[in-house]
Specification:
heterodimer; A: 587 residues; mainly alpha; two-stranded antiparallel sheet; 4 strands; B: 188 residues; 2 domains; 3-stranded antiparallel beta sheet; 5 strands; elongated
């Protein structure tokens, strides 16, 4: 670990802190339909969109209608993507003449992008045409992000409203999220990325004449001479921008943000990391503003920040350590090299930026990677896994992170109420049996999916184990990581796992689907139930949700719930691997 | 209720189509148009050309170099090696025997005490850079093979060290393709 490494981590957090309030206040104005500086440009577009699609923007929706509208819309976008993937061979903007995507893979990918997961069982540059990437996949980065933001705003309304039956209008919320928040930020960010070297074109792949021709031994043992290098191209920057801002994470290329065309410089790396946290962090301010308790928003922000810092510190420490099994190479940090575990990492990012990126991308349900998590040290790889197991609530996915966190907030308030023996209250709302039942349902679906699917896969040599690249405890980590990532809608992977099989495409698709939509039902039910409640005035016995004490309790509840659930499986995977590695064992 | 459902379905389909065109076609095409005017070189891959004007690589994408007379980049897990049509890492875990064997072989080829980045694969398999330590490690070998003085080659390496961006971001690094092209030029 170096001083410069810590300085870069500190700079990231300082910039996030500066940006959180402005973006939060802006989004509050957008979703309360107050005046913003973009109105002259966007109001006419908004009105036209409502007229064409037959939306009545003044209509208010009950939580169940809000839910159904969201499901209908997600289904429509899902089928569109599936169709484009299957038909890409007959559609334009396919300069590499890529054939139709296989049905199980197309299905997995359509679910993956609809659920904001962006799990990728395929190598994009050899599978998806430019049109599929633009119209089939990048659009989902906008849609699923807008849906996430809309749901978070609806949940906040549930808390803020008193004795009302409705949570807002789904169509208005996603339209405003798309037009006011995601579109302008993406366009600016995309151009900033291009200026640093991220490619943005529609031309066929380039063929470069190698400076030194190479002889290559093929799989059949024949030696051939390679004189050219094929350089994949495409409309990358436009997709890269929304991939980060929408915490989607699906790479244009297989190597994702490790690829020099997706993430060419340390500056693009910093901007990408900021883009992941920008909207989730801003939503904590929206929470504070809309519930008229700004300090509550900051308390939630504080709890998230503590968990973020713990994650990045542990990952950075673990990755900066030399691998004790590698002898002969120089793994020490010096002025001219960053040392540590460099397998799967890029020189321009080094240890600190890769550890920081890995933490951010798994805290938020982004899933973009700038280094290969599968090659991280055991503890360094466990931290991204653990971040996801917390339920993607450390800033979290756009929207999804906040409503996930609010479920934990309700649990924290409930536990505080139990401790002092009073009916718990949250911002003037009494928390009752129904709210706790629904919150527990939300919290239990998650580990059930992860542990259930993992157990089946590791017990079956044919279905699960045959896909492994790594043996020993690391093999368990690979499978566990896949189901955790899918259920948490993260999308990053221990990429050694060959997930492009019928079994994994199907079950991971199911995990992604349930991890998003099944968990939304209890969440919206809580929101609807809260909105209908009366407000009770705060008394001396009310547990304040604006203090460091509350933030501490919240962190405690998150850690206890997650660790009690997942510690056993982690001890058999990464923790065991760590111990064996230091005992000199390899597999 | 039935009418309401029908309306929701119609709205869903229309909304998908209209915003699909807006964000799936208009947005990327507008970005492409602006980028091609404002940043034509970067938007097209920061390509490197030879004297005849044919493409010989990209500043951002690494190429394989072997033998004593070129600086070596990092081992690559992309395709058969530095395949920029199929990026990716090795995804070998830290306790995997295949990783340990591969690194041992690389250390044997590069020399004992080789900097770790020179004997490990990158995440993309296309890493254009090595650390300054890894470049300096190879100076004697390259100088000997090219019949140049070690000092001259060292000076060349120093001239190709890219410092941290804005003095703070990322890590110091040496672009292998650019260094080797400069080396070819210096040898002639």
């Amino acid at each position: 670990m170096t001083l410069n490494g810590w300085a870069q981590i500190a700079l990231f957090f300082a910039l996030l802190l500066v940006l959180t309030r402005p973006i939060g206040l802006f989004m509050t104005a957008v979703f309360e339909r107050r005046k913003t500086f973009l109105d002259p440009l966007l109001l006419p577009v908004e009105r036209l969109l409502y007229r064409v699609t037959g939306i009545n923007p003044e209509e208010e929706m009950h939580w169940s209608i809000y839910l159904v509208a969201m499901l209908m819309f997600s289904a429509a976008t899902l089928f569109l993507t599936y169709a484009i993937e299957r038909l890409q061979g007959h559609l334009p903007w396919n300069p590499q003449h890529l054939a139709a995507v296989a049905p199980d893979l197309a299905w997995n990918t359509a679910i993956s992008f609809t659920t904001n997961t962006n799990w990728q069982s395929y190598t994009p540059e050899t599978t998806m045409s430019y049109l599929t990437q633009m119209l089939g996949l990048a659009t989902h980065n906008f849609w699923s992000a807008a849906v996430g933001i809309a749901l978070a705003v609806a949940f906040i309304r549930g808390i803020a409203r008193r004795e009302m039956k409705t949570l807002g209008n789904f169509w208005v919320d996603i339209t405003r999220a798309l037009l006011w928040v995601l579109a302008p930020l993406s366009l600016l960010f995309a151009l900033a990325l291009v200026s640093q070297g991220v490619v943005q074109n529609l031309k066929p792949y380039d063929s470069a004449k190698l400076v030194q021709p190479q002889s290559v031994t093929g799989a059949d043992g024949k030696v051939s001479t390679v004189t050219t290098q094929t350089i994949a191209q495409g409309p990358v920057a436009s997709q890269e921008a929304i991939k980060m801002l929408g915490t989607n994470g699906g790479g244009f290329f297989n190597a994702n943000s490790a690829h020099p065309f997706e993430n060419p410089t340390p500056l693009t790396n910093l901007l990408q990391m900021l883009a992941i946290f920008l909207i989730p962090a801003g939503l904590t301010v929206v929470l504070g503003e809309m519930t008229k308790s700004p300090r509550h928003g900051w308390a939630v922000f504080g709890a998230m920040s503590v968990l973020w810092f713990a994650g990045v510190a542990a990952t950075y420490w673990a990755e900066a350590q030399p691998n004790p099994l590698l002898r002969g190479a120089d793994q020490h940090v010096s002025a001219t090299q960053s040392g540590g575990n460099m397998e799967g990492k890029e020189v321009r990012f080094g240890i600190a930026n890769t550890a920081l990126f890995a933490t951010i991308t798994t805290d938020a349900s982004c899933g973009a990677v700038n280094g290969m998590h599968d090659s991280f040290s055991p503890i360094g790889g466990m931290m991204p896994l653990l971040n996801m197991m917390l339920g993607e609530v450390v800033f979290g996915g756009v929207g999804a992170g906040l409503y996930g966190m609010l479920i934990f907030v309700i649990m924290a308030v409930f536990i505080a109420g139990l401790m002092v023996g009073r009916t718990p209250e949250y911002l003037g709302k009494k928390i009752e049996a129904y709210d706790i039942q629904m919150s527990m349902l939300y919290l239990l679906i998650f580990p059930l999916l992860i542990l259930g699917f993992t157990a089946i896969a590791v017990l079956s040599p044919k279905l699960g184990l045959s896909s492994l690249t790594n043996q020993g405890p690391h093999g368990l980590s690979e499978i566990l990581y896949a189901y955790t990532s899918a259920t948490a809608n993260n999308g990053s992977a221990f990429m050694g796992l060959n997930a492009n099989t019928h079994w994994f495409n199907t079950t991971l698709g199911l995990a992604m689907f349930c991890g998003r939509f099944l968990m939304l039902i209890p969440m919206l039910a809580v929101a609807g139930n809260l909105a209908a409640k009366k407000s009770v005035p705060a008394t001396a016995g009310t547990f304040p949700v604006t203090t460091p004490m509350f933030a501490t309790l919240l962190v405690g509840v998150i850690l206890i719930v997650s660790l009690l659930t997942f510690f056993p499986v982690l001890s058999l995977g990464p923790i065991l691997e760590h111990l064996l590695m230091h005992a000199g064992r390899s597999f | 209720m039935k009418n309401e459902m029908k309306k929701l379905i119609v709205t869903s389909v229309l909304f998908t189509l209209v915003t699909g065109v807006l964000f799936g076609l208009v947005y990327p095409l507008v970005t492409t148009a602006i980028a091609s005017v404002a940043f034509p070189k970067q938007a097209n891959g920061s390509l490197v050309y030879d004297a005849q004007g044919s493409v010989i690589g990209s500043h951002l994408i690494g190429q394989a170099f072997v033998g004593d007379s070129y600086f070596h980049g990092r081992p690559s897990a992309a395709g058969a090696g530095y395949d920029a049509g199929s990026s990716g890492g090795s995804n070998l875990g830290p306790t995997n025997k295949a990783l340990l064997t591969r690194v041992d072989q690389a250390v044997a080829a590069e020399g004992a005490g080789a900097p770790i980045d020179l004997v490990t694969t990158s995440g993309s398999g296309l890493d254009p850079d090595i650390t300054p330590a890894a470049a300096m490690f190879q100076v004697e070998r390259v100088a000997k093979a090219r019949k140049l003085s070690a000092d001259a080659v060292r000076t060349l390496v120093e001239a190709h060290v890219t410092q941290r961006q804005m003095g703070l971001l990322g890590e110091p690094r040496v672009n292998v393709l650019e260094l080797n092209l400069a080396l070819d030029k210096a040898s002639h």
